[in-house]
Design brief:
This protein starts with a helix and ends in a 6-residue tail after the last helix. The chain has a 5-stranded antiparallel beta sheet with strand order 2-1-5-4-3, sandwiched between helices. Strand 1 and strand 2 form a beta hairpin. The protein is elongated and about 75 Å long. By secondary structure, the protein is an alpha+beta fold. It has 13 helices and 5 strands.
């Protein structure tokens, strides 16, 4: 049911996009920037890529639970391929590492022909082709929180879609989507709660002030300031002043 609903949302977005073809690029980027959920981001991106003839979309990012592997979210692929991929074939997938190594948009068929592929990885490529996975492109994307991820687009409706693809535009949509996903998922992280006094002290820590200087500024005693700093370190899960300042800025607790 979720797949059907996602397909319907993508079709509606594609219809709206098609009403003003000359504005579709900027429309998609604006809509992605305003998306309220990750699913909305994927819906808009899918609709955009479909207007360019790419009917499958995948999003890859480094796995937090399984280092060295990638977590993959995909739409529009043959069901048999999805089942085969999730049944262990994903462990042979060479594309995440090849995309990261390239650091630029890459055509999938070019990566599939890479001479450095192992026999297992070549088996993966053969299985993908046998299950109807077509040529397309992979776009590395970068964000402030999830430093590296990638989008893949394929399942083309005509070979010309690949040959004459507008790579900069397609890549720009992928980058915009990743940045918005990054922002949305960062917002799910619970921000540490510091008391008002602790926020003030953290501010002065970030300004490079010593305990003695902070005590003079706030009219407190050094032991009191030291106690507050210990609490700040505990709440931010850090062990030094520089890390405390960095986390304070990261969570929006203080500005520098």
């Amino acid at each position: 049911m979720d797949d059907i609903q996602s397909e319907c949302r993508a079709e509606r977005a594609e219809h709206r996009m098609g009403e003003s073809a000359t504005m579709e690029d900027s429309w998609a980027i604006r809509q992605i920037a305003a998306a309220e959920t990750r699913d909305d981001v994927f819906t808009i991106a899918r609709a955009f890529y479909r207007t360019h003839g790419f009917h499958a979309l995948s999003y890859l990012k480094p796995s937090r639970d399984h280092p060295g592997q990638a977590d993959v979210i995909s739409f529009g692929f043959p069901e048999e391929w999805i089942a085969r991929y999730n049944d262990g074939l994903n462990l042979l997938d060479p594309f995440p590492s090849l995309i990261a190594r390239a650091g630029r948009p890459v055509r999938l068929s070019h990566m599939a022909a890479d001479k450095s592929l192992t026999p297992d990885q070549r088996h993966f490529v053969e299985q993908a082709r046998e299950h109807g996975v077509t040529d397309g492109y992979a776009f590395p994307t970068f964000g402030p929180h999830q430093h590296l991820a990638a989008f893949g687009i394929n399942q083309i409706d005509h070979q010309d879609r690949v040959e004459h693809a507008d790579i900069p535009i397609l890549h720009a949509i992928a980058q915009a989507a990743h940045l918005r996903i990054d922002q949305l998922e960062a917002g799910l992280i619970q921000r540490p709660r510091l008391a008002p006094r602790e926020v003030v002290i953290l501010h002065w820590i970030a300004q490079g002030k010593s305990n003695e200087e902070i005590a003079l500024i706030l009219g407190s005693k050094r032991p009191t300031i030291a106690t507050h700093i210990k609490r700040i370190f505990f709440k931010l899960d850090v062990s030094d002043r520089a890390s405390a300042a960095v986390k304070g800025v990261k969570y929006g607790i203080i500005d520098i």
